[in-house]
């Protein structure tokens, strides 16, 4: 099997984040701490993960970062936009995710990351408002202003390549409409200030227009529309999303495949969350919660395939709630009550109480996506990158197909994509006489 040519990761990689809140500052501070030897990159597949090559008897399991040509952490530079003018240092203090002593030790690096004025429309994030926004011109003008921001950042930072990762808030629920169906329609809508164009779409458009890979860490439509998929293909840009898979949904994509594998039935799955950070405040608005709810609810249906197993999952009642509770801050609690049934239909229950740190789980996802998307761009990969579904609650996928939510299948797909790129045999687990 021939390897795919991949351009070397030479020079600096600029990571641009719309949003300089809890997730992005935790990511930036984390990278800086790791570079200084103050911490380890726990949770990052690109930094700590290995990949098996060939048969088990060969004993070849290099680190992923040694197997494929990824940018090094020492080569990363950071840029951002936000509706508040706070530096990454000030924002990290307000987010309250990291210990103050760690933030203070990184103060010189974090103070250098100053957000640019954001493209913002309060109709799409009703619980937030801030003064640091672009106010002049049409949506098309704002898209051009973002592109100018990107060019200036690249020039000033010395970045040789760029990626953009949406780390801002969840927008209100939006169905795809006429303006989203083609690039021509989308660009016309930008010029006409069409109200169906959300800010996240403008960021995606600006990045993809410049050939920059784009990932969406929230459940917004963002680049998950035909118009921007068309642009990504035309400009040779990889895209991925939606919605970082962190707390409660991560647990669902671990547990549900196990139930299905053992053909254990499910009658109900009730999930509730309490969360006190900016994300929790935004999701306290019913229209923003609707966007998140759609992302969370689709996971079980896809994994369990009730149309194939109606007696096990055809009557599953799935309920999701998110409650804004300021005292909890970024330390989200996800509580699940799972009603299962087994042999002869006898009922059982499972209770899961996951006291997680939302941004701590999200930060390594931002890092991995930045490095993998940059590599994909250098490998000539463009459009939707389904092999990165591993990182998302609601993975974007080829139209006409269903998304893969099973975490373990997603990981196999990701690693087999890396094997394919490097000309290695794919691992199929067929048995000793084949690929064992």
UniProtKB/TrEMBL annotation:
What organism does the record attribute this protein to? Answer: Eiseniibacteriota bacterium
What is the name listed in the Swiss-Prot or TrEMBL entry for this protein?
Inositol-3-phosphate synthase
- All copies of the Myo-inositol-1-phosphate synthase GAPDH-like domain together span 247-359
Give one GO molecular function term: inositol-3-phosphate synthase activity
Biological process per Gene Ontology, one example term: inositol biosynthetic process
| Family, per entry | Belongs to the myo-inositol 1-phosphate synthase family.
Upper classification of the source organism reads:
Bacteria, Candidatus Eiseniibacteriota
Q: Which InterPro entries match?
A: Myo-inos-1-P_Synthase, Myo-inos-1-P_Synthase_GAPDH, NAD(P)-bd_dom_sf
Matching SUPFAM superfamilies: Glyceraldehyde-3-phosphate dehydrogenase-like, C-terminal domain, NAD(P)-binding Rossmann-fold domains
One matching Pfam family is NAD_binding_5
């Amino acid at each position: 099997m021939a390897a795919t040519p991949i351009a070397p990761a030479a020079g600096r990689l600029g990571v641009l984040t719309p949003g300089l809140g809890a997730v992005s500052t935790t990511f930036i501070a984390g990278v800086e701490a790791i570079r200084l030897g103050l911490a380890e990159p726990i949770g990052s597949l690109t930094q700590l993960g290995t990949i098996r090559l060939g048969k088990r008897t060969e004993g070849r399991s290099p680190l992923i970062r040694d197997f494929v040509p990824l940018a090094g952490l020492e080569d990363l530079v950071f840029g951002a936009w936000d509706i508040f003018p706070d530096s990454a240092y000030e924002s990290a203090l307000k987010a309250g995710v990291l210990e103050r002593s760690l933030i203070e030790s990184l103060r010189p690096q974090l103070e250098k990351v100053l957000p640019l004025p954001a493209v913002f429309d309060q109709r799409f994030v009703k619980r937030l408002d801030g003064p640091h926004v672009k106010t002049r011109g049409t949506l098309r003008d704002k898209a051009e202003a973002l592109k100018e921001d990107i060019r200036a950042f690249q020039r000033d930072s010395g970045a040789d390549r760029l990626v953009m990762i949406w780390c801002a808030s969840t927008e209100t629920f939006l169905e795809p409409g006429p303006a989203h169906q083609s690039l021509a329609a989308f660009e016309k809508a930008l010029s006409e200030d069409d109200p169906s164009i959300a800010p996240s779409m403008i960021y995606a458009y600006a990045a993809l227009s410049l050939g920059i890979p784009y990932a969406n860490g929230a459940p917004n439509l963002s680049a998950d529309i035909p118009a921007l998929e068309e642009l990504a293909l035309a400009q040779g840009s990889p895209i991925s999303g939606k919605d970082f898979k962190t707390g409660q949904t991560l647990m669902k994509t671990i547990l549900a495949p196990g139930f299905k594998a053992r053909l254990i039935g499910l009658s109900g799955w009730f999930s509730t969350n309490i969360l006190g950070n900016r994300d929790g405040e935004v999701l306290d608005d019913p229209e923003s919660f609707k966007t998140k709810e759609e992302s969370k609810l689709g996971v079980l249906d896809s994994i369990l395939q009730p149309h194939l197993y109606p007696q096990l999952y055809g009557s599953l009642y799935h309920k999701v709630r998110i409650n804004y509770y300021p005292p909890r801050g970024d330390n989200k609690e996800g509580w699940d009550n799972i009603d299962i049934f087994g042999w002869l239909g006898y009922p059982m229950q499972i209770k899961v109480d996951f006291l997680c740190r939302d941004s701590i789980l999200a930060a390594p996802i931002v890092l991995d996506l930045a490095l993998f998307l940059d590599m994909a761009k250098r490998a000539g990969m463009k459009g939707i990158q389904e092999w990165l579904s591993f990182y998302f609650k609601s993975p974007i996928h080829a139209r006409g197909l269903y998304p893969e939510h099973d975490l373990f299948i997603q990981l196999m797909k990701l690693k087999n994509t890396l094997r394919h790129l490097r000309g290695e045999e794919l691992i199929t687990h067929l048995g000793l006489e084949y690929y064992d």
